[in-house]
Design a protein that fits this description.
The complex is a heterodimer of chains A (316) and B (166). Chain A is an alpha/beta fold and 316 residues long. Helix content of chain A is 44%, strand content 14%. Chain A folds into two domains: 2-241, Aldolase class I (TIM Barrel, Alpha-Beta Barrel), CATH 3.20.20.70; 250-315. Chain A has helices at residues 21-29, 42-46, 50-55, 74-83, 101-104, 116-129, 149-159, 181-190, 204-214, 230-241, 250-266, 274-281, 288-295, 301-315; strands at 10-12, 35-36, 40-41, 65-70, 91-96, 134-141, 163-170, 195-198, 218-221. Chain A is globular. Chain B has two domains: 2-69; 83-165, Jelly Rolls (Sandwich), CATH 2.60.120.1030. The longest helix of chain B has 30 residues, at 2-31. The chains are: A alpha/beta (316), B alpha+beta (166). The complex binds flavin mononucleotide.
């Protein structure tokens, strides 16, 4: 199956507002085994929302890639998947982990973890409607008193999911506290389908450790890849050769940031979106706080590039 | 009436004075070392008592130390918390005897035989087909298929046994 033929098992996580077409191409070129779209509303596909169509654009060479859907109506999800039958992507993922109030209020994202029968129906409907593998992304539970990741994983397995990603936090933790990798390992032991572990992987060293210690079939990195696509190249190189490559130099980082900036400018996408990426790239660099405040008032890619170029010299 | 009041204040003052004198007498009795109320004791007796008390303190501290790590779990043993549950429109929620729930958003009607559910907040029975009021505590009296028909996507807080038919 396609999931077995991925070039590696280090995934770039779906991140709304971050993992756009340019970012996915960037982490793909740094070795990420699989990339995901930003989360896409099943309903807005069925209603042919124009802004949603943008989320489905992808650089042709960035394959395989997954589109992540969110919703709470099995029929609508099936309809959305059916409508995208000819859209060039490879894997369907269903979001059952998003903690944001406006999503959860509608019974979507992590809310599905409070209603496992409904979650099961969503997965079954997607599997029936899809010619591609269907995968699921969950959390450890909704609240500390309802830790049901294992139950959810078993339901996903029974419903025909090809794999399941577990983020080791509860919904009510949002992104606070620490990810519980013991809970992830427990899910791995409980089901036969591959389990992908997710949460708090902020370096290649931790990526290797989590992959080896959790017993997971793969790992997924989200925030750790912001401004740091090298987390993929370093992890993959270590797993292949047993030698951890050095961290990128400041010059390499700034060059990549400029290339990223130019790619976004070429796409004519909203350049303001680039501000956050640039502040992630330059985090921890000398006088980065000052630079960041300048970046945050820059309005064009030229202005942004002019701020970055002097950083190249400082690097030497 | 005015006459009577005039007698009350001197009476209160006299009573207070008596109390003051009595407590003073008692205080002086304790303060008198070597009497039956405040005997002189040996150094060895004091050391022994302190050793016993110290042992008790240490033992209590150890017990506390054993309890503290466990207190990080927010769910205490024996306490069943309400859990939030999303139930989409068109589904039915069947609850067991003793289950309690609160409708937080959306709308739902009662599914029950002749005896209905208990709206604890309103202090009333709610009969089959009647709507549930939001934020009212509802109690399920028996395990005989009673529950809720969900009319529009709902969030409930539930405690106790239940199943959802989608
Ligand atoms: C800004 C941001 C946006 C996110 N958007 C999504 C999303 O669209 N879909 C999803 O499943 N998870 C989303 N997540 C959650 C991540 O995929 C991931 O599960 C979580 O951040 C934990 O991984 P990490 O510790 O590596 O960041 C998002 C996280 C962040 C920080």
């Amino acid at each position: 199956m396609l999931l077995d033929s991925l070039k590696n098992n280090i995934y770039m996580a779906p991140m709304a507002g971050v993992t756009d077409r340019v970012f996915r191409a960037l982490v793909h070129s740094h070795g990420a085994g699989l990339t995901f779209s930003e989360m896409v509303s099943a309903k807005s596909i069925v209603y042919r929302n124009k802004n949603t169509a943008r989320l489905l654009e992808n650089a042709p060479h960035v394959r395989p890639w997954a589109v992540q859907f969110f919703g709470h109506e099995p029929e609508i999800l099936a309809e959305a998947i059916h409508m995208l039958e000819d859209c060039p992507f490879d894997i369907v993922n269903i979001n059952m982990g998003c903690p944001m109030p406006k999503i959860v209020k509608n019974g979507e994202g992590a809310a599905l973890m409070t209603n496992p029968p409904l979650a099961g129906r969503m997965i079954e409907a997607a599997v029936r409607a899809s010619s591609r593998p269907v995968t699921v992304k969950i959390r450890k539970g909704f609240t500390p008193s309802s830790l049901n990741a294992i139950e959810m994983a078993k339901i996903a397995e029974a419903a025909g999911a090809a794999n399941i990603t577990v983020h080791g936090r509860t919904r009510d933790q949002y992104y606070t506290g620490t990810a519980d990798w013991e809970a992830i390992a427990a899910v791995k032991k409980a089901v036969k389908i591959p389990v992908i572990g997710n949460g708090d992987i902020f370096s290649a060293e931790v990526a290797v450790k989590r992959l080896q210690e959790s017993g997971c079939d793969g790992i997924m990195i989200a925030r750790g890849a912001m401004g740091n696509p090298w987390i993929f190249s370093r992890t993959v190189a270590y797993l292949e050769t047993g030698v951890m490559p050095p961290e990128p130099t400041q010059e390499e980082i700034i060059k990549t940031a400029i290339a990223h900036l130019n790619a976004v400018a070429e796409e004519k996408s909203n350049i303001v979106e680039m501000r956050k990426h640039l502040s992630w790239y330059t985090k921890g660099m000398h006088s980065s706080a000052e630079l960041r405040s300048k970046i945050n008032s820059a309005k064009t890619s030229q202005e942004m590039e002019a701020l970055l170029v002097p950083m190249l010299d400082k690097a030497k | 009436m005015k006459h009577a009041k005039n007698y009350i204040y001197p009476a209160i003052i006299a009573a207070l004075a008596v109390l003051l004198i009595l407590s003073h007498l008692q205080a002086t009795a304790y303060a008198q070392p070597g009497t039956a109320n405040d005997p002189l004791v040996t150094q060895r007796y004091v050391d022994e008592r302190i050793a016993v008390l110290q042992a008790q303190i240490t033992s209590l501290q150890n017990q506390l130390g054993n309890i503290e790590p466990g207190t990080t779990t927010s769910v205490e043993a024996g306490v069943v918390p309400f859990t939030p549950v999303f139930v989409p429109r068109g589904s039915t929620l069947i609850a067991e005897a003793g289950a309690e729930f609160i409708l937080r958003s959306g709308s739902a009607n009662v599914v029950a035989g002749p005896n209905g559910l208990v709206d604890v907040t309103a202090g009333q029975d709610i009969a089959n087909g009647q709507p549930i009021s939001r934020n009212h505590l509802i109690l399920v009296p028996a395990t005989d298929g009673r529950g809720l028909q969900i009319i529009s996507d709902a969030w409930l807080m539930i405690k106790g046994g239940y199943s959802i038919v989608i």
